[in-house]
Protein backbone atom coordinates (compact mmCIF):
# COMPACT_ATOMS: atom_id res chain seq x y z
CA UNK A 1 0.00 0.00 0.00
CA UNK A 2 1.18 3.52 -0.75
CA UNK A 3 2.81 5.57 1.95
CA UNK A 4 0.16 7.75 3.55
CA UNK A 5 0.29 11.46 2.86
CA UNK A 6 -0.81 14.26 5.09
CA UNK A 7 -4.52 14.86 5.35
CA UNK A 8 -5.74 17.57 7.60
CA UNK A 9 -8.42 16.46 10.04
CA UNK A 10 -9.85 19.78 11.10
CA UNK A 11 -12.68 20.25 13.55
CA UNK A 12 -15.19 21.07 10.86
CA UNK A 13 -14.79 17.62 9.33
CA UNK A 14 -16.49 14.51 10.56
CA UNK A 15 -14.93 11.07 10.43
CA UNK A 16 -16.82 7.83 9.86
CA UNK A 17 -16.32 4.10 10.16
CA UNK A 18 -17.98 1.65 7.77
CA UNK A 19 -18.21 -2.11 8.36
CA UNK A 20 -19.30 -4.35 5.50
CA UNK A 21 -21.30 -7.47 6.31
CA UNK A 22 -21.59 -9.24 2.95
CA UNK A 23 -24.15 -11.93 3.80
CA UNK A 24 -27.77 -12.14 2.65
CA UNK A 25 -30.43 -14.86 2.85
CA UNK A 26 -30.56 -14.92 -0.96
CA UNK A 27 -29.38 -12.78 -3.85
CA UNK A 28 -31.92 -10.22 -5.08
CA UNK A 29 -32.37 -10.24 -8.85
CA UNK A 30 -31.09 -6.67 -9.37
CA UNK A 31 -28.20 -6.76 -6.89
CA UNK A 32 -24.58 -6.26 -7.85
CA UNK A 33 -23.37 -5.33 -4.36
CA UNK A 34 -20.58 -7.36 -2.86
CA UNK A 35 -22.97 -9.77 -1.16
CA UNK A 36 -23.18 -13.55 -0.92
CA UNK A 37 -25.75 -16.06 0.21
CA UNK A 38 -25.12 -16.69 3.92
CA UNK A 39 -22.70 -19.53 4.50
CA UNK A 40 -22.33 -20.18 8.23
CA UNK A 41 -19.05 -22.02 7.57
CA UNK A 42 -17.48 -18.76 6.39
CA UNK A 43 -19.02 -16.31 8.87
CA UNK A 44 -16.70 -17.10 11.78
CA UNK A 45 -13.56 -16.63 9.70
CA UNK A 46 -14.98 -13.48 8.17
CA UNK A 47 -15.62 -11.97 11.61
CA UNK A 48 -12.10 -12.86 12.77
CA UNK A 49 -10.65 -11.26 9.63
CA UNK A 50 -12.73 -8.14 10.25
CA UNK A 51 -11.41 -7.90 13.81
CA UNK A 52 -7.84 -8.21 12.58
CA UNK A 53 -8.43 -5.55 9.95
CA UNK A 54 -9.85 -3.19 12.58
CA UNK A 55 -6.75 -3.86 14.70
CA UNK A 56 -4.27 -3.12 11.91
CA UNK A 57 -6.05 0.07 10.93
CA UNK A 58 -6.46 1.09 14.56
CA UNK A 59 -2.71 0.79 15.13
CA UNK A 60 -1.92 2.66 11.95
CA UNK A 61 -4.49 5.45 12.08
CA UNK A 62 -3.92 6.44 15.70
CA UNK A 63 -6.75 7.20 18.08
CA UNK A 64 -9.15 9.07 15.81
CA UNK A 65 -12.49 10.43 16.96
CA UNK A 66 -15.44 9.07 14.99
CA UNK A 67 -18.85 10.67 14.75
CA UNK A 68 -20.52 7.89 12.77
CA UNK A 69 -20.45 4.12 12.36
CA UNK A 70 -22.37 2.33 9.61
CA UNK A 71 -22.90 -1.42 9.30
CA UNK A 72 -23.91 -2.03 5.70
CA UNK A 73 -24.06 -4.94 3.36
CA UNK A 74 -25.25 -7.33 2.40
CA UNK A 75 -27.66 -7.67 5.25
CA UNK A 76 -25.97 -7.12 8.63
CA UNK A 77 -29.06 -8.49 10.40
CA UNK A 78 -28.33 -11.95 9.02
CA UNK A 79 -25.81 -12.04 11.91
CA UNK A 80 -26.90 -12.23 15.56
CA UNK A 81 -26.96 -8.85 17.34
CA UNK A 82 -24.11 -10.13 19.54
CA UNK A 83 -21.77 -10.20 16.53
CA UNK A 84 -22.56 -6.58 15.69
CA UNK A 85 -22.06 -5.67 19.37
CA UNK A 86 -18.64 -7.41 19.39
CA UNK A 87 -17.56 -5.56 16.26
CA UNK A 88 -18.61 -2.28 17.83
CA UNK A 89 -16.57 -3.13 20.92
CA UNK A 90 -13.60 -3.84 18.69
CA UNK A 91 -13.98 -0.45 17.01
CA UNK A 92 -14.22 1.21 20.43
CA UNK A 93 -10.90 -0.37 21.38
CA UNK A 94 -9.14 1.69 18.72
CA UNK A 95 -11.33 4.69 17.97
CA UNK A 96 -13.03 7.29 20.15
CA UNK A 97 -16.60 6.87 19.03
CA UNK A 98 -18.32 9.98 20.35
CA UNK A 99 -21.10 9.61 22.90
CA UNK A 100 -23.68 11.09 20.51
CA UNK A 101 -22.36 9.27 17.44
CA UNK A 102 -24.80 8.10 14.79
CA UNK A 103 -24.51 4.31 14.70
CA UNK A 104 -26.54 2.78 11.87
CA UNK A 105 -27.28 -0.83 11.00
CA UNK A 106 -28.94 -1.87 7.75
CA UNK A 107 -31.82 -4.13 8.75
CA UNK A 108 -33.93 -5.95 6.23
CA UNK A 109 -37.47 -7.18 6.89
CA UNK A 110 -37.56 -10.92 7.26
CA UNK A 111 -34.13 -11.03 8.94
CA UNK A 112 -34.73 -9.10 12.17
CA UNK A 113 -37.03 -9.62 15.15
CA UNK A 114 -37.59 -8.05 18.57
CA UNK A 115 -34.68 -9.87 20.14
CA UNK A 116 -32.36 -8.66 17.41
CA UNK A 117 -33.51 -5.05 17.78
CA UNK A 118 -33.24 -5.17 21.57
CA UNK A 119 -29.68 -6.47 21.21
CA UNK A 120 -28.74 -3.75 18.73
CA UNK A 121 -30.26 -1.09 20.95
CA UNK A 122 -28.33 -2.39 23.97
CA UNK A 123 -25.12 -2.32 21.90
CA UNK A 124 -25.58 1.40 21.26
CA UNK A 125 -27.04 1.34 17.74
CA UNK A 126 -29.00 4.56 17.23
CA UNK A 127 -30.43 4.22 13.73
CA UNK A 128 -31.78 1.51 11.45
CA UNK A 129 -31.82 1.68 7.68
CA UNK A 130 -34.52 -0.66 6.43
CA UNK A 131 -34.51 -2.17 2.94
CA UNK A 132 -38.25 -1.93 2.31
CA UNK A 133 -38.03 -1.33 -1.49
CA UNK A 134 -41.77 -1.73 -2.18
CA UNK A 135 -45.07 -2.32 -0.39
CA UNK A 136 -46.40 -4.54 -3.15
CA UNK A 137 -45.82 -8.28 -2.87
CA UNK A 138 -45.83 -8.71 -6.65
CA UNK A 139 -42.94 -6.30 -7.02
CA UNK A 140 -41.08 -7.71 -4.03
CA UNK A 141 -41.31 -11.14 -5.60
CA UNK A 142 -40.15 -9.78 -8.98
CA UNK A 143 -37.16 -8.20 -7.24
CA UNK A 144 -36.24 -11.46 -5.51
CA UNK A 145 -36.69 -9.98 -2.03
CA UNK A 146 -37.14 -12.49 0.81
CA UNK A 147 -39.89 -10.55 2.60
CA UNK A 148 -43.50 -9.55 2.04
CA UNK A 149 -44.99 -6.09 2.45
CA UNK A 150 -46.73 -7.21 5.64
CA UNK A 151 -43.39 -8.37 7.08
CA UNK A 152 -41.91 -4.96 6.27
CA UNK A 153 -44.71 -3.23 8.18
CA UNK A 154 -44.39 -5.54 11.14
CA UNK A 155 -40.57 -5.29 11.23
CA UNK A 156 -40.97 -1.52 11.31
CA UNK A 157 -43.40 -1.82 14.26
CA UNK A 158 -41.00 -4.15 16.07
CA UNK A 159 -38.15 -1.68 15.62
CA UNK A 160 -40.28 1.14 16.99
CA UNK A 161 -41.32 -1.03 19.96
CA UNK A 162 -37.63 -1.71 20.67
CA UNK A 163 -37.17 2.05 21.06
CA UNK A 164 -35.68 3.07 17.70
CA UNK A 165 -36.70 6.63 16.97
CA UNK A 166 -34.48 7.12 13.93
CA UNK A 167 -35.59 4.84 11.11
CA UNK A 168 -34.85 5.14 7.44
CA UNK A 169 -36.56 3.42 4.49
CA UNK A 170 -34.91 2.48 1.20
CA UNK A 171 -37.43 2.44 -1.64
CA UNK A 172 -36.80 1.61 -5.32
CA UNK A 173 -38.60 3.24 -8.21
CA UNK A 174 -38.54 2.54 -11.94
CA UNK A 175 -39.42 -1.13 -11.40
CA UNK A 176 -40.53 -3.34 -14.29
CA UNK A 177 -44.21 -2.60 -15.11
CA UNK A 178 -44.35 0.15 -12.47
CA UNK A 179 -46.54 3.16 -13.28
CA UNK A 180 -46.26 6.60 -11.68
CA UNK A 181 -49.59 5.91 -9.92
CA UNK A 182 -48.18 2.76 -8.40
CA UNK A 183 -45.06 4.60 -7.24
CA UNK A 184 -47.20 7.31 -5.63
CA UNK A 185 -49.09 4.60 -3.77
CA UNK A 186 -45.79 3.11 -2.51
CA UNK A 187 -44.72 6.50 -1.18
CA UNK A 188 -48.10 7.05 0.49
CA UNK A 189 -47.81 3.69 2.26
CA UNK A 190 -44.32 4.62 3.44
CA UNK A 191 -45.57 7.98 4.72
CA UNK A 192 -48.32 6.31 6.71
CA UNK A 193 -45.60 4.67 8.81
CA UNK A 194 -43.83 8.01 9.22
CA UNK A 195 -40.13 7.02 9.18
CA UNK A 196 -37.64 9.78 9.98
CA UNK A 197 -35.72 9.36 6.74
CA UNK A 198 -36.41 8.10 3.22
CA UNK A 199 -33.89 7.14 0.52
CA UNK A 200 -35.15 6.72 -3.04
CA UNK A 201 -33.23 4.68 -5.57
CA UNK A 202 -33.90 4.39 -9.27
CA UNK A 203 -33.53 0.77 -10.39
CA UNK A 204 -30.21 0.27 -12.15
CA UNK A 205 -29.67 -2.77 -14.33
CA UNK A 206 -26.16 -4.00 -13.63
CA UNK A 207 -24.18 -6.58 -15.52
CA UNK A 208 -24.03 -9.99 -13.91
CA UNK A 209 -27.51 -9.72 -12.36
CA UNK A 210 -30.59 -11.73 -13.25
CA UNK A 211 -32.30 -8.51 -14.32
CA UNK A 212 -29.48 -7.88 -16.77
CA UNK A 213 -30.13 -11.26 -18.41
CA UNK A 214 -33.87 -10.60 -18.52
CA UNK A 215 -33.38 -7.25 -20.18
CA UNK A 216 -31.02 -8.73 -22.75
CA UNK A 217 -33.70 -11.29 -23.60
CA UNK A 218 -36.28 -8.49 -23.86
CA UNK A 219 -38.20 -9.82 -20.85
CA UNK A 220 -37.97 -6.75 -18.62
CA UNK A 221 -40.55 -4.02 -19.26
CA UNK A 222 -38.89 -0.99 -17.68
CA UNK A 223 -40.47 2.48 -17.48
CA UNK A 224 -38.87 4.96 -19.87
CA UNK A 225 -36.73 7.92 -18.77
CA UNK A 226 -39.61 10.40 -18.83
CA UNK A 227 -41.74 8.18 -16.63
CA UNK A 228 -38.88 7.81 -14.15
CA UNK A 229 -38.38 11.57 -14.14
CA UNK A 230 -42.08 12.03 -13.43
CA UNK A 231 -41.79 9.65 -10.44
CA UNK A 232 -38.84 11.56 -9.07
CA UNK A 233 -40.37 14.99 -9.57
CA UNK A 234 -43.54 13.96 -7.81
CA UNK A 235 -41.47 13.07 -4.72
CA UNK A 236 -39.70 16.42 -4.84
CA UNK A 237 -43.08 18.11 -4.41
CA UNK A 238 -44.98 15.62 -2.25
CA UNK A 239 -42.41 14.74 0.42
CA UNK A 240 -41.68 18.31 1.57
CA UNK A 241 -45.44 18.81 1.98
CA UNK A 242 -45.34 15.95 4.48
CA UNK A 243 -42.49 17.45 6.47
CA UNK A 244 -39.53 15.77 4.76
CA UNK A 245 -36.85 18.06 3.42
CA UNK A 246 -34.94 16.94 0.37
CA UNK A 247 -31.34 17.41 1.44
CA UNK A 248 -29.66 15.27 -1.22
CA UNK A 249 -30.62 14.16 -4.72
CA UNK A 250 -32.14 10.89 -3.46
CA UNK A 251 -32.59 11.52 0.26
CA UNK A 252 -35.30 13.13 2.37
CA UNK A 253 -35.40 13.61 6.13
CA UNK A 254 -37.50 15.10 8.86
CA UNK A 255 -35.67 18.02 10.53
CA UNK A 256 -32.73 16.75 12.57
CA UNK A 257 -32.63 13.33 10.89
CA UNK A 258 -30.30 13.78 7.93
CA UNK A 259 -27.85 10.89 7.63
CA UNK A 260 -24.59 12.05 9.19
CA UNK A 261 -22.67 9.09 7.86
CA UNK A 262 -23.63 9.61 4.22
CA UNK A 263 -22.97 13.33 4.60
CA UNK A 264 -19.33 12.40 5.25
CA UNK A 265 -19.21 10.77 1.80
CA UNK A 266 -20.95 13.70 0.11
CA UNK A 267 -18.65 16.23 1.73
CA UNK A 268 -15.67 14.14 0.72
CA UNK A 269 -14.60 13.79 4.33
CA UNK A 270 -12.49 10.91 5.68
CA UNK A 271 -13.73 7.46 6.63
CA UNK A 272 -12.33 3.99 7.06
CA UNK A 273 -14.09 1.02 5.51
CA UNK A 274 -13.64 -2.50 6.88
CA UNK A 275 -14.68 -5.74 5.24
CA UNK A 276 -14.71 -7.40 1.83
CA UNK A 277 -14.90 -4.84 -0.96
CA UNK A 278 -15.20 -1.94 1.51
CA UNK A 279 -13.75 1.40 0.46
CA UNK A 280 -12.10 4.11 2.55
CA UNK A 281 -10.65 7.60 2.26
CA UNK A 282 -7.88 8.34 4.71
CA UNK A 283 -5.14 10.96 4.64
CA UNK A 284 -5.87 11.77 1.02
CA UNK A 285 -5.77 8.12 -0.06
CA UNK A 286 -8.70 6.21 -1.47
CA UNK A 287 -8.55 2.45 -1.09
CA UNK A 288 -10.69 -0.57 -1.79
CA UNK A 289 -10.43 -3.94 -0.13
CA UNK A 290 -10.42 -7.31 -1.87
CA UNK A 291 -13.98 -8.15 -2.93
CA UNK A 292 -13.85 -11.99 -2.97
CA UNK A 293 -14.56 -13.31 0.50
CA UNK A 294 -11.79 -15.89 0.54
CA UNK A 295 -9.16 -13.42 -0.63
CA UNK A 296 -10.28 -10.89 1.96
CA UNK A 297 -10.32 -13.47 4.76
CA UNK A 298 -6.88 -14.80 3.81
CA UNK A 299 -5.31 -11.33 3.98
CA UNK A 300 -7.26 -10.32 7.08
CA UNK A 301 -6.34 -13.43 9.08
CA UNK A 302 -2.70 -12.97 8.12
CA UNK A 303 -2.84 -9.54 9.77
CA UNK A 304 -2.24 -7.75 6.46
CA UNK A 305 -4.08 -4.75 5.07
CA UNK A 306 -6.63 -6.50 2.82
CA UNK A 307 -6.36 -3.67 0.30
CA UNK A 308 -6.74 -4.55 -3.38
CA UNK A 309 -6.16 -1.07 -4.79
CA UNK A 310 -5.28 2.35 -3.48
CA UNK A 311 -4.62 5.76 -4.91
CA UNK A 312 -3.34 8.94 -3.33
CA UNK A 313 -5.36 11.76 -4.82
CA UNK A 314 -3.67 14.83 -6.24
CA UNK A 315 -4.94 18.15 -4.91
CA UNK A 316 -6.59 18.72 -8.27
CA UNK A 317 -8.43 15.39 -8.14
CA UNK A 318 -9.48 15.91 -4.50
CA UNK A 319 -10.94 19.31 -5.41
CA UNK A 320 -12.83 17.85 -8.38
CA UNK A 321 -14.24 15.04 -6.26
CA UNK A 322 -15.26 17.49 -3.54
CA UNK A 323 -17.24 19.45 -6.15
CA UNK A 324 -18.75 16.37 -7.73
CA UNK A 325 -19.86 14.81 -4.45
CA UNK A 326 -20.88 18.09 -2.79
CA UNK A 327 -23.28 18.94 -5.59
CA UNK A 328 -25.37 15.95 -4.55
CA UNK A 329 -26.36 17.93 -1.45
CA UNK A 330 -29.07 20.55 -1.87
CA UNK A 331 -26.99 22.85 0.34
CA UNK A 332 -24.33 22.43 -2.33
CA UNK A 333 -20.60 22.98 -1.97
CA UNK A 334 -19.88 25.46 0.81
CA UNK A 335 -17.44 28.00 -0.57
CA UNK A 336 -15.72 28.92 2.70
CA UNK A 337 -15.29 25.25 3.73
CA UNK A 338 -13.78 24.51 0.32
CA UNK A 339 -11.49 27.53 0.65
CA UNK A 340 -10.38 26.44 4.12
CA UNK A 341 -9.54 23.01 2.79
CA UNK A 342 -7.88 23.81 -0.53
CA UNK A 343 -6.95 27.48 -0.28
CA UNK A 344 -9.05 28.45 -3.30
CA UNK A 345 -12.57 29.69 -3.87
CA UNK A 346 -14.35 27.07 -6.00
CA UNK A 347 -16.36 29.79 -7.76
CA UNK A 348 -13.09 31.23 -9.05
CA UNK A 349 -11.29 27.94 -9.57
CA UNK A 350 -14.09 26.58 -11.77
CA UNK A 351 -15.35 29.92 -13.12
CA UNK A 352 -15.66 28.98 -16.84
CA UNK A 353 -17.51 25.72 -16.23
CA UNK A 354 -19.72 27.27 -13.56
CA UNK A 355 -20.62 30.14 -15.84
CA UNK A 356 -21.63 27.71 -18.57
CA UNK A 357 -23.78 25.66 -16.18
CA UNK A 358 -25.41 28.73 -14.64
CA UNK A 359 -26.33 29.91 -18.14
CA UNK A 360 -27.84 26.48 -18.81
CA UNK A 361 -30.00 26.90 -15.69
CA UNK A 362 -28.66 23.83 -13.88
CA UNK A 363 -26.36 25.51 -11.32
CA UNK A 364 -26.77 28.45 -8.94
CA UNK A 365 -24.05 30.38 -7.12
CA UNK A 366 -24.33 32.77 -4.19
CA UNK A 367 -21.93 34.06 -1.53
CA UNK A 368 -22.24 30.88 0.51
CA UNK A 369 -22.45 27.97 -1.89
CA UNK A 370 -22.58 26.47 -5.35
CA UNK A 371 -25.58 24.24 -5.78
CA UNK A 372 -27.78 22.47 -8.31
CA UNK A 373 -31.04 24.12 -9.34
CA UNK A 374 -34.20 22.08 -9.55
CA UNK A 375 -33.52 21.53 -13.24
CA UNK A 376 -29.96 20.58 -12.33
CA UNK A 377 -31.22 17.93 -9.92
CA UNK A 378 -32.87 16.13 -12.82
CA UNK A 379 -29.59 15.95 -14.78
CA UNK A 380 -27.24 15.80 -11.81
CA UNK A 381 -24.78 13.23 -13.13
CA UNK A 382 -23.98 15.18 -16.28
CA UNK A 383 -23.50 18.40 -14.24
CA UNK A 384 -21.25 16.60 -11.73
CA UNK A 385 -19.17 15.11 -14.55
CA UNK A 386 -18.12 18.63 -15.59
CA UNK A 387 -15.94 18.86 -12.46
CA UNK A 388 -13.86 15.71 -12.78
S1 LIG B 1 -30.59 -7.61 0.42
FE1 LIG B 1 -29.42 -5.93 -0.52
S2 LIG B 1 -27.29 -6.63 -0.58
FE2 LIG B 1 -28.59 -8.42 -0.17
S3 LIG B 1 -28.91 -9.33 -2.16
FE3 LIG B 1 -30.66 -7.97 -1.78
S4 LIG B 1 -30.06 -5.99 -2.66
FE4 LIG B 1 -28.21 -7.24 -2.49
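^ Assign residues to that structure.
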Amino acid sequence: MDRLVDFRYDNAMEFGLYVHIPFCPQKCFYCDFNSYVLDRGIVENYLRALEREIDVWGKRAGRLRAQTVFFGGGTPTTLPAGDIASLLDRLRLWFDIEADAEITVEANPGTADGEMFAGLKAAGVTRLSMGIQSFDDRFLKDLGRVHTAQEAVSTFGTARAAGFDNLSFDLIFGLPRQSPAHWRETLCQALELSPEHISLYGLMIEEGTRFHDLRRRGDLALPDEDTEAEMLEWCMDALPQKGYEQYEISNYARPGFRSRHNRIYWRNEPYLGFGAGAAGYHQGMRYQNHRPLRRYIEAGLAGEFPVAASETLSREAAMGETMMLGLRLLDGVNRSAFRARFGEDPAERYAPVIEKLVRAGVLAVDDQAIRLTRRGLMVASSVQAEFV
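The pocket of iron/sulfur cluster is lined by residues 24, 27-28, 31, 33, 35, 73-75, 108, 131 (CB under 6 Å).
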